[in-house]
Design brief:
about 0% helix, single chain, mainly beta, about 50% strand
Length: about 100
């Protein structure tokens, strides 16, 4: 199965938002890295299905690939981002900034 929108490696060696249906770039390619959120227990959850960790200039953020909200949801200003899948609750984002 292919998603309509993805963060794809662009011609400049960085990642940007790409529309697979229209076969066009929707944004500048500005992200150095893209990772799939994996919880501390190495299991992914439906709550982060449309989310990707993105890195820009050594700082991490979260990008939403949900068709109704294609945008950065947590700005790229963190040293590290994890998500913690909690039983019976929504997922929690764990953010580390300036070593804290």
């Amino acid at each position: 199965m292919s998603w309509r929108y993805e963060l794809k490696l662009g011609p400049n060696g960085k990642y940007g938002l790409y529309d697979n249906k229209q076969e066009e770039w929707l944004d500048d390619c500005i992200y150095d890295q893209v990772k799939k959120p994996i919880a501390k227990d190495n299991i992914s959850a439906l709550g982060v299905l449309f989310s990707k960790f993105v890195c820009q200039n050594g700082r991490w953020g979260v990008f939403s690939l949900h068709p109704q909200k294609l945008s950065i949801t947590i700005p790229c200003e963190y040293d590290e981002i994890l998500y913690d899948r909690r039983i019976g609750t929504d997922s929690w984002w764990l953010l580390k900034k300036d070593g804290k």
